[in-house]
Amino acid sequence: MSATDTNNLPLWVQNRDTVIKYSASADIEWRTGAAPDYSRSNENLAKESVCKHVEGSLEAIVQNLVRTFEMEVSCKTNPQQWLSVVQNKFRVSTNGGREFDAAELGAKGTYNVFMADSDHYKASEESFETSHKLFHTCFTNGFPWEILEVYSAPPNVTFKWRHWGHFSGAYKDFAPTGETIEVIGMSVARVSDDLKIISMEHYFDNGLFLKKLTAGGKVADDTKSESSCPFNPLGLLKRFKKS
Cα 185 from chain centroid? Predict the structure, then answer.
């Protein structure tokens, strides 16, 4: 598929920044009051992506569609303004769990739908805002996503993907390790004739993801409650106290 063909594709399977540029001229209900800026994300993708898909290829088209979808869920508060989904049919699920419609996904946020409840993450107790703040805190340089392989073409698109980020900030009360955390998953997207998402099923090991986020151990209480001065006498005594 040539670049000319790419330009003739539906807007929602073109580059994410193209969708945002188009949306800037529409009356979009942006979550922050303004269109998002993905310039830093684009820089990270250019430097750290393991795949460079040819423009107009099936891999590039699916990647564009999912990135646009993620942008709309995260940044557009009104699901009726999401271009990437079939409004009255859309459903999403993770690891065979319950399905969520667009309104529920927009209210809960992708992290809460993808992670569910576990020992180290309680999706039922997190809001859209708190979940995004939590993961943006531990991945201060972003949490990029890319397509690795596409195994089947529309209407039932099966693909393998990669999420990654540099664990540089605390996760709840667990210390950052500084390592690059990578999540590999599989998804099945059922799409319409015009390539809008009807349903999406995600499969990945969220337990392994959380294990990596808690691997650094809990931050010691004295480092949180004592003076931040490294020569605080009381803090030093506690740190070198015999067990």
Answer: 12
Assign residue 24 a region (left: φ > 0; alpha: ψ between -120 and 50; beta: otherwise): alpha
- Read off the tokens for 102: 């667009």
Number of domains comprising the chain: 1
Closest CA to 84 of 162, 236, 189: 189
Give DSSP secondary structure letters for 67-97.
Answer: HHHHHHHHHBS-GGG-SSB-TTT-EEEETT-
Domain containing residue 17: CATH number = 3.10.450.50
Segment 61-78, tens digit of pLDDT: 999 999 999 999 999 999
Find the domain containing 55 and state its range. 3-217
One-letter amino acid for residue 148 of the chain: L
241 is a domain residue: no
Domain assignment present for residue 242? The answer is no
pLDDT for 241: 43
Domain membership of residue 110 (yes or no) is yes
Whether residue 195 is contained in a domain is answered as yes
Residue 160 β-bridge partners: 149, 186
